[in-house]
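Dear Dr. H.,

I hope your travels went smoothly. While you were away I took the liberty of generating a structure for the chain from your last submission, since the lab meeting agenda had it listed for discussion. I wanted you to have the full record in hand beforehand rather than looking at slides cold. The sequence, exactly as received, is reproduced here:
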Amino acid sequence: MSSSLHDPQNQPTPSFTKKVEICQGEINDAEVPLLNGERRTENYSVLAAILPFLFPAFGGLLYGYDIGATSCAIISIQSPELSGVSWYGLSSVDIGLITSGSLYGALVGSLLAFNIADFLGRRRELVFSALLYICGALVTALAPVFAVMVVGRLIYGLGIGLAMHAAPLYIAETAPCQIRGLLISMKEFFIVIGMLMGYIVGSLLVNTVVGWRYMYGISVPVALIMGIGMWWLPTSPRWILLRAMQGKGKVHDLRETAISCLRRLRGRAIGDSASQQVDEMLSEISHLSEEKEVTIAEMFHGKCLKALTIGAGLVLFQQITGQPSVLYYAPTIFQSAGFSAASEATTASIFLGLLKLIMTGIAVLIVDRVGRRPLLLTGVSGMTVSLFLLGSYYSFFDNIPAVAVVGLLVYVGCYQLSFGPIGWLMISEVFPLRSRGRGMSIAVLVNFGANALVAFAFSPLKELLGAGIVFFIFGGIAVLSLAFIFFVIPETKGLTLEEIEVKIL
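The corresponding predicted structure, in token form, is as follows:
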């Protein structure tokens, strides 16, 4: 190994040369800084790439499952005949604590991730989140009294916060650049699969005695598989090299560990090129001055501030364009269209879940070909139209329920084509390596905080202004989000994480 690897200050400087092909093609015909003036397509085994995505994605599946299962669990637990407990007479506040307990736990988990993520690393953070999922699900399912159930919901939410922080980071840092967008977007696909599973399991168990306990208990074996899988998977090579640059170990030893991890992640297809790829990462990380840990103050300056503006701004608009409220209002919309019975409402919820799944699948398949910006602009434009349709229905056309149903379906479909998967994808790509852990935790915090705020504020605003005005307000915010996407959000298709930092930030 050359002596330059022992001294970050003596790393070779990337050459700024001719236009080159980056993974899937030229990126805006721009000159991209590369170590040797050229970038090879990353060789990888498809089979080897599946597991480093699958086990982290279980964290998203468990988050989605909780959303779907809870919608049925609150019906089960309030039934005098089926709840199996003496404290079934819950107030609206009690129900709110059950439904939002995991959300507030996720907020705390996001704050926790800010301080421990870079220390633990992506893999161990996901193992820890799996343990929290298991503990939270068991405490909730076995709760003898209401207070213990709320504690279980909060513990489960801590797992959500850590998993939704670490999973996209681990996938982004370990995935080949050709399929990075597909794999990170697939995490959203797993969230939707989880929601659909929750709706289906809940509908099957809602008429079973103590069915709510089974609904929450089913999370345990899935979380156990996630934890074992993450314990077996290799550590992110980029995180290992960051530790080397920060003096957290011997560079030579950490370099060899990173090479070993990369070989496991890529499979036999990587051949003898693993050491060369690790040396490229190491040199690029050193050139980008990644050897110092980022401070809180630095998060709001320079590259970190630009990345924070892109990432946090995107997930903020993702929520304040009304996503929690539109889904919350979906049963009312279906009732106005004639789906009044409980069984019909359950069927409608499953149908919505299938629509979300289909549209997310489309986004996953085309994101690395079409790009992030086109999907965002197209999808958010459709969301804007649908929000004005919903506003018009509640203000002028309340005798034509088809307007509301069409508006709802267009909104859900367009959200899953754009903000749903692309939001999580971009926040995992844009942060510089040394600020990636803390930047991601801020973005996740903004996501869950805005989600809670919109969900809380919708009912009071609806009562004060009327549903039509509220949807028109969401439509106006969607117009602003289009401007934000057009002028602020960059295209990252085909770029490696290091190239994103050099070219965009």
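Two observations you may find useful: The mean pLDDT is 81. The radius of gyration is 23 Å.

With kind regards,
E. W.
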